[in-house]
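Researcher: Please generate the 3D structure of the following complex. Treat every line as part of one assembly.
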Amino acid sequence: MKKSVFILVLLCLGFASCNNETSLQEFYVEHQNDNQYLAFDIPVSLLTGDNTTLNAEQKATLETIRKVNILGFPLKAENKEEYETEKERLSSILKADKYQQLMRYGGGTRKAELYYLGEEDAIDELIVFGSDDEKGFGIARLTGNDMNPEALIRLLKSFEKGELDVAGLPKLEGFFD
Amino acid sequence: MKKFSLALLALILPFLSGAQSFDKYESMKEVDAVVVTSKMFKLLTKIDLNADDPETQAYIDLIENLKEMKVLSTTKENIRQQMALDVASYIKKGSMEELMRVSEDGKTVRFYYKPGKNDDYVSQLFMFMEGQDKNKPMSVILNITGEINLAQVSKLANDFKIPGGEELEKVETN
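Model: Done. Output below.
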């Protein structure tokens, strides 16, 4: 009898801990229609324009990137309390082992953390979580399938050289004005 | 009961002492903190392009075995004093040995280390700098843990543009 109670307790604990673990995706879905938040979900195809000049390798890299999504919480006088609790919730979500922390920075009222999901040579998600206690917090996610960091860097370099056409980007900037 | 609390204390104590004593600075508003984790170093080894070159290979070997790099810097006078005190007691308490000491243009830089698996490697490199940054007095703590090849560590300064990073170039092995 005692044993079965013990097992039951263990089982309950197991379930409880599973339920507590919200993923970033759930947090995102929960808040994307919340009017306190700014949410953008942008497929990479929308950001890039004519990329016929890219070579096969660059195209292949671009195809591993699926989308960028951004969730922002602008701080106002009346939502200070919510800012604190939601920021806290996000940091506890990111404490899960699957989110591998690469770097963190803190200084003044600002904080930034960089994480990734997946394997070191096949990244599924890159996450930037930043907050400023005077302006608000934001979380940006670059999702894809097995993104290769080396290839990503090379693509980024070609973007600097102007080879990668990001015709969609100016349109996006308009959102923030 | 007494025994139990003693055991508990013995368990907790290691966490309270050691490098842990600098954690409080990380959350201070007046302190700029940068922490780079081992995962970042592992990722960097995947990115480094030309591994055929023996120089690059040595560098990859260095960063592959780094555990964590932490930089804390501040320009606030009261925190600088507190840092200096904490560093002094940390060095005294820990099994750190002095590696070198540089004094120039009103700046003092001290390096300490914990011995590693052999003479070429250290398991911790700790730097404390007191000096100036843009005419403001500044103190910087730089702590690196892992398996550190001192002959290679100066190269980190190129990859990480951090306060006090350029001091790493002074690390020499004899």
